[in-house]
Amino acid sequence: MSGAVARLKRRRDYLRVAAARRKAVLPGMVVQALERDSDDSDVRAGFTASRKVGNAVRRNKARRRLKALADELLPSQGTPATDYVLIARHTTVERDFADLRDDLEKALQRLSTKREART
């Protein structure tokens, strides 16, 4: 893939990922994952920030930071044919970008380890 990962846009896709109950909780974000049973090997990502994160400006900033991280890390470190949902936390906006990057790397590692342990 070149650059940006494909985006999850439909509510049902977000609900399907949440129903899989595979997640990694870190200080800067929560990452949920679901492996798809399809021939499409693209990594897809969705982003959300609830009102707990703050007002609209803070929520949008948090989502932009998560999107930048996903575009940077998911093409190389994400598991093929997997949907990820990155959920902002109240600390996402203030957290140093390098720490957020570390959080996402740890989350991807944890989620891939869980997957390998189950198979």
Question: What does this protein structure show overall?
Answer:
The protein has helices at residues 11-19, 56-77, 97-118, and strands at residues 6-7, 23-26, 29-35, 44-48, 82-88. It is α/β, with parallel strands linked by helices. The chain has one domain (6-118): 2-Layer Sandwich (Ribosomal Protein S5, domain 2), CATH 3.30.230.10. The chain has a 5-stranded mixed β-sheet with strand order 1-4-5-3-2, sandwiched between helices. β4 (44-48), α2 and β5 (82-88) form a beta-alpha-beta unit. The longest helix is centred in the middle third of the chain and has 22 residues, at 56-77. The protein is globular, with a radius of gyration of 13 Å. The mean pLDDT is 90.
Comma- or semicolon-separated keywords:
119 residues; alpha/beta; Ribosomal Protein S5, domain 2; 5-stranded mixed sheet
